[in-house]
Amino acid sequence: MARRPKLAVWKFASCDGCQLSLLDCEDELLAVAGAVEIANFPEASSAVVEGPYDLSLVEGSITTPHDAQRIQAVRAQSKFLVTIGACATAGGIQALRNFADVKDFIAAVYASPQFIDTLATSTAISAHIPVDYELHGCPINKAQLVEVISAFLAGRKPAVAAHSVCIECKQRGNVCVMVQGTPCLGPVTHAGCGAICPAYRRGCYGCYGPMETPNMPALTREWCELGADGRDIQRVLRSFNAWAEPFRQESEAHDD
């Protein structure tokens, strides 16, 4: 009997939401479980099979010296490594620390800050090790996740669309909210959510991070035409994907 490929799921600084997306696959997860050996997935089971692993899924950002070392060990025992979610691909909401001095936050929050061992920044996994693929989202799209797992097991490139949320709006039949006067990040945001917010006449919040070729200055000029100011633009860009380079650069362009 042929050996089933080993799948490992790893957690770093995150909320576990992307791991829960895998567990939420339900029927699809049963098919995945039949095709692979889930060798390391603490969110699902305490049983651990030693590596090396054929495919590792990594959730979370690197925020401590310990995790900076641990991710090296994960990479060393993984044939393929895929980062999942905004934390792993862009540093997550915790990357807001990168715009200030983390020591000030520590002093304000902890009674004994001398016991806190953390890095000055929260960064994506790719800032520390080579990554084979990045799956964006906060949280990730479970159908896209199943596609990525299937693609790596089959030895092919994942068929995950690279277009913006605007395409999903058109596919869904949404009327453009920006045409109606509502600022929206849809034109520069990676597809994957199904255009949920614009379907309810709210602007896109950029949960899936920047698309491959976002024209950030053109979008923010349109926002200004709709009445937004620099503070509004910074506020919306500094959320789940604040440290993703296109969002970060454009938000910094609006510093006072």
UniProtKB/TrEMBL annotation:
Known cofactor(s): [3Fe-4S] cluster
Record-annotated NADH:ubiquinone oxidoreductase-like 20kDa subunit domain positions: 15-151
Keyword line: 3Fe-4S, Cell membrane, Iron, Iron-sulfur, Membrane, Metal-binding, Oxidoreductase
Gene3D superfamilies per the UniProt record, alphabetical: NADH:ubiquinone oxidoreductase-like, 20kDa subunit (3.40.50.700)
PANTHER family: COENZYME F420-REDUCING HYDROGENASE, GAMMA SUBUNIT, HYDROGENASE SMALL SUBUNIT
Name the record gives this protein: NADH:ubiquinone oxidoreductase-like 20kDa subunit domain-containing protein
Native species: Novosphingobium beihaiensis
